[in-house]
Amino acid sequence: MTPKNWNTVARRLVKLEDDELCRQLFIRMRFEEALKFDACFEAWAHEGQEAPKREGWRTWLLMAGRGYGKTRAGAEWVNGLAGVRGKPVRIALVGATQAEARAVMVEGQSGILACAKKHQRPRWEPSLGRLTWPNGSVALLYSGENPDGLRGGNNHFAWVDEFGKYAQPQETWDNLQMSLRLGARPRALVTTTPRPTPALKRIAAQPWTVTTRGRTTDNGAHSDNFLDVMMATYGGTRLGRQELDGELIDDVAGSLWPREVIERCRTAAVDGDDLPRVVVGVDPPASVGGDACGIVVCGRGEDGVGYVLEDASVEGLRPEGWARAVVAAAERWGADKVVAEGNQGGAMVESVLRAADAALPVRMVWAKRGKTVRAEPVAYLFEKGEAKFAGAFPELEDELAGLTIGGGYEGPGRSPDRADACVWALTELMLRREQARPRVRVL
């Protein structure tokens, strides 16, 4: 295999849908050919690793999970800017510490030196923290521990790595911004695993910031074993959503379910057959194609603890559609009762549910108080450890975290339908003591 244009070859290989053919082609490559293929970064990079195409951006914020390829994207971006013949530029390389900037951004496996093309490889002077490219471009190392080190500097571009862990993030960012004043269009790339720090949230909110995202699972270089273990251990949890999925998860001020409480109340999956009572909570949508139909299954154990078992909520379905989803959830868990809110539809909701299954043990409830007021006693159960999440339920948890003391809602969507269904189910199980009825069983 001796092609003249490796970028063309790389693009064609990436587009092949025959995985086995691709594997055979890679196996047949000589070592030097594999290196040339790897160097064609633009041909096989993820969309999130490519510089924004939008005009006028000043900050590119690449927030992604660990192992997504953030460092490789940063190194390729810097080499691409610095290696242009006849156009020397000055670049600031800012790491959490000076040591990390050197070990990861410059000398790392996916760092600048490893990614530079042979004829554009910069000269590295560790004692000075300086990289110099053949065309005269220069990059200097700085750290988030010493914001004043950026004072007085003049730069065309900057690469800021792992900004979420800086000791002095705002001071570092402010000084860096004041140094970006060379050339017609100074720009900065921020590569980081998201952490909800005020400085990072301010950067993300700026109108000249373009944000791209990615997950750990997007990088096919990871072994299936690694990904399976990570997802089985952390999938859906706050840590996993932040460190693997690259989500910026923040606590809402005055939340009834702070993220710390949610994580503290998480436990392993529970076998429904071991629970004396199981209830399905339902918050029906007001109209077809409107809000989601909240369907949440909860159970009460012999130990008196309430467990969230499943978020079976559905969206965009007609009444007969979400009614079938309710019946299916009740059958899966052998529920002894379905508690459905009747404020939106009243008798119609009950008739739709009974039309789906005449034997369904339905109890209609009407909300006389606001969602947050109803939720407060249930939130207190979690605070005391008397209610737990038997697994991870990201969408439900986001809604619960958005309910605030005082009656507000600052979560996703217009209405916390999943959260309301969960509150109805746990209220029935934990706060309304009643003798258990025979449970639904499917033979």
How does this structure look, described?
The structure is a single chain. This protein is an alpha/beta fold and 443 residues long. Helix content is 37%, strand content 17%. The chain is built from 17 helices and 15 strands. The chain has an eight-stranded mixed beta sheet with strand order 3-4-5-2-6-7-1-8, sandwiched between helices. Helix 14 links the parallel strand 13 and strand 14. Helix 15 packs across helix 17. The chain is elongated, with a radius of gyration of 27 Å. The protein starts with 5 loop residues before the first helix and ends in a 12-residue tail after the last helix. The relative contact order is 0.10. The model has no long low-confidence stretch (mean pLDDT 85).
Search tags:
8-stranded mixed β-sheet; alpha/beta; 443 residues; single chain
Low-confidence segments, given as residue ranges, are: none
* Annotation, overall tally of beta strands: 15
The number of helices is 17
N-C termini distance: 62 Å
Q: What is the arithmetic mean of pLDDT?
A: 85
Blueprint of the fold:
Layout: H1 6-15, H2 19-28, H3 31-39, H4 41-44, E1 59-64, H5 70-82, E2 90-95, H6 98-106, H7 112-115, E3 123-125, E4 130-132, E5 138-143, E6 157-161, H8 169-179, E7 187-192, H9 198-205, E8 209-214, H10 224-234, H11 238-243, H12 259-264, E9 266-267, E10 277-283, E11 294-300, E12 306-311, H13 319-333, E13 337-341, H14 347-356, E14 362-365, H15 371-383, E15 387-390, H16 394-402, H17 417-431
Parallel strand pairs: 1-7, 1-8, 2-5, 2-6, 6-7, 9-15, 10-13, 12-15, 13-14
Antiparallel strand pairs: 3-4, 4-5, 10-11, 11-12
